[in-house]
Amino acid sequence: MSSASELLKELLTHCVKTGASDLHLSPGQPPFYRADGRLNRELAWPVLSGDDVLQLACVLAGSDLEGWSQGAIDGATSEAGGRFRFNLYRKQKETAIAIRRLDEHIRPLVELGLPDSLYELSDLKDGLVIVAGPTGSGKSTTLATLIDRINRDHQAHIITIEDPIEYLHPSQKSLVNQRQIGIDSESFNDALVASLRQDPDVILVGEIREIETIRTAITAAETGHLVFATVHAPDCVGVIERITSVFPADEQSGVRRQLALVLKAVIAQHLLVADGAKVEADEKAGSRQVARRVLASEIMRVNSAIGNLIASGKSAQILSSIESGASAGMRTLDQNLAELMLAGMISERTATAYAQNPQIVQDRLMRLKRGGGRIGLMRAEGHR
Q: Where is the signal peptide (predicted)?
């Protein structure tokens, strides 16, 4: 097993050195690394056998997996100067591994590409804050930054419920207890229900998707706790629809009314490939931080107007309220895409591909150009 341990360390060290976000190990293939959003075959590495991958999986899981026949195993490990999340899974009776590299250090919001005003969410006493986006869009990174701010600034009891634990939060001004699904609790809902009896001030739920977990999260927010969670949805309106659609039709109106009362903010984010010309220019200029990935985000703060739209089921009108809510720290994805394009951080092709309405992006871009306003945008190098 020592040789497998050494091989794993070499593979993860290469991941860190090359700045890759993901590593894939599959029988009959050399390692595959994802860097800057692109998956590349590492031909310099030898092809891995089924036994090679199984032994690597045993090192990660800390056990003998010979009898493992189906399903998947999640976990996290600190190795080779970094922290990694892994998923072991079965495919055609063999073992395969997907590994995601996590940031070693928690980065400030502005470095992630988000406005500093979002730190206000860490000062809330109760309510529900949701970070949305597809897999790999940096949702956990954003939440880690907000939790870190509470940990450093507030005297609170923070409980995180994750699968697996990604970012470690040593207790500072707050007391932080981190629980992992599969090790410390059987399910998100079981851990969330139990957490309400553990005197928490802040609860982070890695993901809310099942009806009971969503129901408990809303109840926790209603009863004086600050709840952070992630949802797989492309935009802020999609979060509302995703949550309510989980419930039976006769419960949905009641859930909307509850959400209108407890939901404080939604951040929907996407990681985009940076404009090639901009990256090349930064590299030639010797920039210490070359942004190869750029965060585009939509931000909704739930005021009385948006709360009324949520409660009454008028989701189609929420986007207009976000568009006109700049003074309250809101912006649509299309507005942010136009700003990123004006700053030269993404190409028009990328902006158009992710836009909800490409024409709005173009109109917004023209207004920004006419206004000559400075766009204060930071690179999203810290997000994966």
A: none
User: 14 with 80: CB under 8 angstroms?
Assistant: no
Return the bridge partners of 48, or none: 29
Instruction: Report CA-CA distances (Å) from 211 to 164, 169, 208.
Output: 21, 28, 8
Tokens of 294: 């750029």
Q: How many CB atoms lie within 10 A of CB 43?
A: 9
Distance CA 343, CA 282 (A): 13
**337 vs 269: CA distance, rounded Å:** 11
Residue type at position 151: N
**DSSP-assigned beta bridge partners for residue 264:** none
> Cis (ω within 30 of 0) for the bond into 108?
no
Q: Give the position of tokens 């585009």.
A: 296
Tell me the DSSP string of 21-32.
Answer: SEEEE-TTB--E
Total residue length of the chain: 384
pLDDT tens-digit readout, 343-377 = 999 998 899 999 988 888 888 888 887 775 444 44
Task: Give the tens place of pLDDT for each residue, 273-325.
Answer: 887 655 555 555 555 454 578 999 999 999 999 999 999 999 999 999 999 99
Q: Is 92 left (phi over 0), alpha (psi -120 to 50) or beta?
A: left
Amino acid letter at 11?
L
DSSP 272-338: EEPPHHHHHHHHHTT-SS--SEEEEEEEEE--HHHHHHHHTT-GGGHHHHHHT-GGGT-B-HHHHHH
**Cα–Cα distance measured from residue 32 to residue 22, given in angstroms and rounded to the nearest whole number:** 8
CB atoms within 10 A of CB 249: 8
- State residue 357's pLDDT score: 87
CA dihedral sign of residues 227, 22, 13, 95:
positive
Amino acid letter at 301?
R
Please list the alpha-helical segments (H only) found in 32-170. 50-61, 109-112, 139-153
Enumerate residues 6+ apart whose C-beta is below 8 A from 192. Answer: 161, 203, 205, 213, 216, 217, 220
339: left (phi over 0), alpha (psi -120 to 50) or beta: alpha
pLDDT recorded at residue 282:
58
